[in-house]
Protein: LOW QUALITY PROTEIN: vomeronasal type-2 receptor 26-like
Organism: Python bivittatus
Amino acid sequence: MMDFSEAPSSHLFDDILYFSADWTYRASLELFSPQDRFIPNYSCDMQNRPIAVLGGPTSAVGVHMTTILSLYKMPQLIYGYTPETNGKKEAVLYQQMFPNVNDQYKGILQLVLYFKWTWIGAISPKNENGERFVHDVVPMFAQRGICFDFIEGIPITTYSSSIFDLMEEGIKMFKVVMTSTTNAVIIHGEIDDMILLRTFPTMSKLEGIQLWTKVKVWVMTAQIDFVSLPFIRNEDIDFIHGALSFAIHSKKVLGFWEFFQMTKPTLDRDDDRFIKLFWKNAFECSFSNSMIDEEDGVLCTEEEKLETLPTSVFEMDMTGHSYSIYNAVYVVAHALHTMFSSAFAFRAENHKAQLCLLEQQFWKLNHFVRRVSFNNSVGEKVSFNQNGELEIGFDIMNWITFPNQSFLRVRVGRIDPMKSQREIFSSSEEPIVWPRRFNQALPLSLCNNKCPSGYSKSKLEGKPFCCYDYLQCPEGKVANQEDMNDCFQCQQDQYPNQNQDLCLSKVVTFLTYEETLGTVLTSFALFFSLVTVGVLWIFIKHQDTPIVKANNQNLTYVLLVALMLSFLCSLLFIGQPSKVMCVFRQTAFAIIFSVAVSCVLAKTIIVVLAFMTTKPGSKMTKWVGKRLSMFIVSCCPFIESIICATWLSISPPFLDADMSSMAEEIVLECNEGSVFMFYCVLGYMGFLAIVSFKLAFLARKLPDAFNEAKFITFSMLVFCSVWLSFIPTYLSTKGKYMVAVEVFSIIASSAGLLICIFFPKCYILVLRPDLNKKEQLRIKK
């Protein structure tokens, strides 16, 4: 490494630190003028000519500096943010000790999203730099669902502007900011803009606004730093308590604190004007033997200590800008070392010749500066990217103020551009201190209250997209989070709760024996089946009596057995269904019922034929007998069996879970498969019943000896009424109640046949045996 003590001049680096950027032109030209005279581009003293310049902190200083120094290809290191220049030749002649500003904007976005602030404000200077910020940031934030309540401009100080104009513009901006409903405000500016912000307490007094009740969470960019001038020294700094700011990443450098402890002015030297001016303003004292003396007041001594000053006057900790300057010095040192070690430098015969060659060709240092990569004294890598920007990232600082006008900046996060886009922002374990009016609760910065769960957003006309109303979710939909754009349907096996903010699992249900409805239907089925058995027993017991013989006892037995099986068949529809049960119960119901209806039809036909055979010479006598009844009872169920076989071969019933019919239940049911075939089965039974009903109705006025036609008419009337009402009722019900309707129809229609056909006969057999005689069956004219 080169020994800097051998350098020809102590002016190896010039730090241009003026708030007035216009002075930068003159300061830049003075570098190429004689030491005591301002004659630009005329300097014979090559020994005192600088070989690199360090400048900042404002963008205006950087731009003005590069405009002049780039003409001379002077290497430049700028520790403040400098916008991109239009000339590519100028861009390669300076390196920015400030990281990529776009990484800062992305970091602010990540920070805002982290705290879920969607309604924010922004303050930016009224210059090209501020316009560029608005142009880049607003669309990027809008894409992530964040909008701005206001974007106010910070007044720019010019020679033509007066203090009254600045205060008037500042008060207008202050009123907009403080009356806004947003609680988070991004402040994009530069180091001199802090002067205007520090006048906020004064503005609040002028406007009668209680600042502590309106103070915002300030989010300041890294270009802004705390600055203290004599006329604002005693201004209250409590308004920045709880603020968040971005800063160039830095670490504590060993010896930095001790350096300031030893720093003090030299009273017997008149050329140390800068430190004496600072000392005079910081400690509010005067020097008796200098040009800047004040005749009255406290005299300055060498006993003042910088650490006794409040941090609002002088900050002892290394800031991001200080860390950048520290790194910049070592960047030039490493570049010089590499340059002197290169082949072109060793063309000279001695070290003095090397220095002379360097002074004549200092512009070649730019090549080595841009390629610098080293670890500084705290172990962090220092290097530049292809755009000449320092690859170091940003820290997120939390400002904490104290009553003695001091403040503390605590690192609470980091923006690391070397990580992936999702991991660029990281928060530390340090708790964030918020402005006092929030009582340490996380501030909310929303246009309106959050849309609660169970509701969805509704856009408000004429308002930004961050401002919205909310509407309750429609029936059947839920919103299980806050601020949802739309409600959504639950999964098929779930249903919305009453508040429509949660999906609950549906209960699997079916018609069980244990529930009341299942128990009642089962009881009726068993009861009527027992009654049918009792009726069968009565008929068997009285099988030799005239009334049993007169009513075709074989058909009677088959009908009673069919009715008993019909009642028991209804039990197949109750209980948990299975694949086998679904196929068996529909076919069993169809065939058994067709047998019962066929028996009734056979009885009806035989009654009509029996009456017709009583006429002399009737040819119908040969049709009355067992062969006809057996043919009808065999043929009709056979046709029904063919229909059922076709049904099973085309699209048989199957086990199904109906998730849509009932809102809170999954109905385990038997799907009919082919609905057409299901209604064909019912239609065929209906056809048999209608034929039987029509024949019985026509024979209802036969003599009393053949009164069975009248009973069949009543029974068919009940049967048809039940099944005609079944269809609309079945289609209008859902879930297990559809099964209950079918079970009820089976029991009701079977009971109608049993009661209407057999109860009158049982009455005679059991209670009126005197009527059960042949004399009562004779035909009377």
